[in-house]
Amino acid sequence: MNHIVGLNTFITLNLIFSKLMLCYPVRYQVIRITPRDEADVEWIHLLEERYEGKFDFWQMTRVLERPIDIMVSPKYHDLLQTLLNARGLDYVVHIPDVQGLIDNQFSAKGILDGNNGFDYSKYHTYDEIQQWVADIAAAHSDIVESFQIATSSEGRAINGLKIGKKTSGKPAVYFQGGIHAREWMSPATVMYFTNQMLETYGSDTGVTDMLDKFDWYIVPSLNVDGYVYTWSNDRMWRKTRRQEAGNRCKGIDPNRNYEYKWGGAGTSTNPCSDVYRGLSSHSEREVASSTSFLLQKKQTQDFHVFIDFHAYSQLWLLPWSYSDTALLPADTKDQDDMAKVCTDALTAVHGTKYEYGPSARKLYAASGCSADWGYATLGAKYSYVIELGDTGTHGFVMPESEIIPSGEENFAAIKKLGEIIVAEFAS
Ligand SMILES: [Zn+2]
After folding, report:
1. pLDDT tens for residues 207-233?
2. Is 387 a catalytic residue?
3. Active-site residue among 284, 286, 387, 400?
4. Which class is 126-425 in CATH?
5. Strand 157-163 relative to strand 144-151: parallel, antiparallel, unpaired?
6. Strand partners, 57
7. CA 281 to ligand 1 centroid distance, Å
8. Does domain 2-104 fall into CATH 3.30.70.340?
C-alpha cells in the first residue's frame, strides 16, 4: 500500500509547507455551527456566497435543527472566527485535525473475505474498482454483465454492472455511487451490497425475486476523474476535473449539472465554487452520457427506481431538490412510505438512524440534481438521494472500519426496497 503512504505524505507535506509559509494555526479544522433562527441561516448562506472558495461547506442546511459544518484552512481560520464572533454565533471545533483523520482513515490491516481476493472492508482506487466490475461480471456471468456508461473528460472508462436474470423487457432499477469524488463511503457501500445481492441470489428468496424480476444497473463510481484526484492530490475534491476555457478553476459539480431545472437555487456561476453548475446543463460527459444511456434503455424498460448515493448526513432525500416551495410530486406519499420502511430496515441492523423527507425542505434547495432528473425525466417513481453515514463525526473521512457496517445496513434497506417494488410492479 505504498501509494497510501505516498498520499498521506504528500498531503502532510503540503500542510506543513502551508504552515511554514503562512505561520497560521496548525490544522485544517471542521467548525460546527448551530443556527439560532432563520436570520442566522440566511446569514450563513450569504457568508458562503460572499467568501466562495475560502470556506468548504461540508454540510449545509436551511433547516434549523441541523448543524452546519465548515472545513476551514489554517489560512482562513482567523477570518471565520472573526466573522462568527461578530455575528455572535456559537460554534464548536467539531473536527480539530482533518489531516489526523486522513492519516487514520486506512486500517492497519484489512480482512480478506475470499471473494476473488477483493477486500470489501477497504477503500479502493479507480483501477481496483474497474477491475472489480470486470471480475464480478466474470464470476457471476449467468446473471451479470458489465457495461460502460460513459467516458470521463480525462478519458477514463466509467463501468457498471447489469444484474438480473437474463430475460428481456424487465422493469429496471438504477443505482450510482461516487458522483462527488470525496464521498468515498459511497462506492465502498455500493460495492459491498452489490456483492451481497449476488452472493445471496438463489438462497435468499427476496433477493432471488428482486433479481429475477428486475434488471439492476449499478455504477459504483461515476465521477472517476475526481475520484482519482482524491487519491493523488486532494482528498477533499468534490467536482469533475474538466477545465473550461478561460477559467482559473477546474471542475463542475456534476450534481448541479443535470438538465432538469438546471441553473436555479443552490448553484453557482463561479467556476471556483464547489457547487459550480457549468456553462450549460449536461456539459459534463459523466452526466450527459449516463443520462443518454438510461434514456436509451428506457425505450424498452421502465425504470422504477433511481438512487444516487452520497455521504454524509444519514438521510433518504425525496424530490424535489430544486425548490422548497414547489408543489411536491404526486408520488410523494409513496416515496415517503418507501423511505420509512427502508430506513427502518436499515436501523434494525446496527441501530443507525436515517431521517427522510423532500430534499429541499429537509436540507436546502439545489437545482440540476440527479434525483429530480431521475423522477421527472427518467420517470422513476422512487427517486432518491441517499446521504450515507456518518452524521459528521468523521465527515467525508470515515474510517475503513465503518465500511462493512454501512454496507450491511444499506443492504437491508435495498432488500426491503426490492420486496416493495416486486410487489408493486412485478407480481
Ligand atoms: Zn454528495
Report:
1. 999 999 999 999 999 999 999 999 999
2. yes
3. 387
4. alpha beta
5. antiparallel
6. 70
7. 18
8. yes
| Count of other CB atoms within 10 angstroms of residue 270 | 15
Contacts of 109 (CB under 8 A, 6+ apart): none
Asked whether the predicted pLDDT for residue 1 surpasses 50, the reply is: no
State the distance from the centre of ligand 1 to the C-alpha of 180, rounded, in angstroms. 5
Q: 202 CA to middle of ligand 1, Å?
A: 34
More reliable by pLDDT, 144 or 169? 144
The C-alpha atoms of residue 375 and residue 257 are separated, in whole angstroms, by 15
pLDDT at 10: 40
d(CA 119, CA 252): 32
Ligand 1: centre distance to CA 20 (Å) = 33
CA of 59 to the centre of ligand 1 (A): 10
Q: What is the 86 CA–ligand 1 centroid distance (Å)?
A: 31
| Beta carbons within 10 angstroms of residue 243's beta carbon | 13
Q: How far is CA 114 from CA 111, 210, 263, 311, 313, in A?
A: 9, 25, 47, 28, 32
Phi, psi of 88 (to 5 degrees): 75, 25
- Residue spans per domain, the chain: 2-104, 126-425
For residue range 290-305, what is the model confidence (pLDDT) as tens digits?
Answer: 999 999 999 999 999 9
Q: For residue range 179-214, list pLDDT tens digits in order.
A: 999 999 999 999 999 999 999 999 999 999 999 999
Q: Which residue has the higher pLDDT, 109 or 101?
A: 101
